[in-house]
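Lab notebook, bench 4. We co-purified these components, and the gel suggests they stay together. Before we commit to crystallization screens, I want a quick structural picture of the whole thing.
Request: model the full complex, all chains together.
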Amino acid sequence: MTLETLIQLIITGISMGSIYGLVALGFVVIYKATGVFNLAQGEFLMVGTYVAWTFLSLFKLPVWLGIVLTIAVMIALGFGLERFPLRPMIGQSILSLIMVTIALGAVLMGVATLFWSPYYAPVLPRILPEQDVVLFGVKYPGLLIWGFLIVLILTAIFGLMFRYTRIGLNMRAVAESQHVAQSMGIRVTRVTAQSWAVAAVTAAAGGIILGLMRGVDFALVNLGIKAIPAALVGGLESIPGALIGGILIGVIESLTGGYLGQGLKDITPFVIMMIVLFIKPYGIFGLERIERV
Amino acid sequence: MGLPCGVFSNQYGKDIAVIRTRQQWMMLAGLFVVLCALPFIPLIKGGIYFVSALCITIIAVQGLNIITGYCGLISLGHAAFMAVGAYTSGILAKQLGLPFWICLPLAGISAGAVGIIFGLPSVRVKGFYLALSTLAAQFIITYIIYTPASTLTGGIIAMPVPLARLGNIVFNTETEWYFIIMPMTVLMTFFAKNLARTNTGRVFVAVRDNDLAAEVMGTNIFRYKILAFFIGCFYAGIAGSLWAHYQGAISVDDFTLRNSIWYVGMLIVGGMGSAVGVIFGATFIRILELITNIAAPVIAHAIPLISFQIGASLTQIVFGLVLIVFLVLEPRGLAHGWEIFKSSYRLWPFSY
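Here is the predicted assembly.
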């Protein structure tokens, strides 16, 4: 293997990993604001991609309108799901919270199958430039680079939103303590709904970029599962951590795929996750929870 | 636990007994008669496959109940541990020619050992993080069966498993298998029920309710968490081994993440921390699955537009909705309803 291959693998890994990072961002936003880990994130991603496909390819709407409508649908989905079944789950056990998101995933998957499975191998229209980009003397598919840039921009937007806007401040307050936030006049239910909407939108964004690269299908759900190790490695409470964790997972996965074989590639994230759970369970930037009696 | 009027215990042993009145003994005997007669009742005879498969599921979920219900450790990889048992049993029977009766416990032990490996992170993490460890187990075990071990397991192709035999009797009919699986289920349920009443079971519950408090009171919580994983996965291994020999062929598709999730769903629907709840939950979900399988073609016939995909989607939607409804409305599951029914039956006509 030459140096060129190595660089190519690393850059592919970074751009792939940044998409994991974007999906992981969805996990982090919900976890930060509500303490729920949304295992239906993969289904969100798949549904978001199919919604975008419906607007862009099936209805043949202009790109900007299609994207705006997709975002609107995902925000509505996030708000709707907060109302039911998530609001009654406040204060329930961790198992209930995990299972309710899994059940949600099953329902979303079933509904998506009902609507979209008759369409054979749907493809999104080309909304990103696809010319090869030359970097360090190596050519890369344009989609990888553009996707990476979009992810960077989105992460920056969400990071700044958390840091500087009223909504972000509310979310951080709710994450700190729901009770205190409530007594200070923050509507916890609305903040929860907003964080679910943010997660749904990030999932759709990641899904659209992936859909452009490899077509739209139900296997997109697996990408949501692969983003779990990314969120964990970065630390469940950290927004930059999600992106860094995602890139780390993407690069290691790409290198394993390149040097050790494609089969091993798919489980590498989970092996890394096991190692992280043994060595540093709260991730690189996560908060270590210290229990006091 | 309330008792009918006039029944008093004068010994401690009598007080903690599960079955305490003559009526309960008679009902238990009746249950055994019904269980033994089941394959000979004309209506059920054809569906005995369903009953046997249900029994295997019950064994697996009893194991999950020990891990999740009693000890409070969330496992999202139970089907993978079942796969370990199934493949261990299948490989031992096929490659070494060991009889089924030896493969069965060995399958349990191997699944238990693998369970310990993936339970090890419980020394440092709990709750959600531990769930992730078992989720990783699901993918890593499936991968190992698919690729590095494919010379032994056959990889993607289903692996044939030799028939079980005892002396000259070869077990190859549904009824014969029922009489292996049903007593095993009764036995395993009996152990699961009684485990919760032993010292170990009480420590499990203490760890679930507050592991910090349990540790302060002097229990070695790590040891007990690992023990819970071993026992629970042992159950999964036994269920897997039974499934392998009963089916005669196994493939990884029998043990997917979806199956693992369904087992947790059964536990929630039935009610966690209750041996009888497991039976309710497994039966409820399996019957629901049966009904959707019957209903899907009917709906497909009525609405031709969705005839192609209704089968795949209906089961998912129904399962998800049922789970959500139980989580929101009755988190204690069917077992709780059963307790209410029993006490109001006992107090009738003054139930309030």
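Residues 275-302 of chain B form the longest helix (28 residues). Worth comparing against the SEC data before the next meeting. The first strand of chain B starts at residue 159 and ends at 160.
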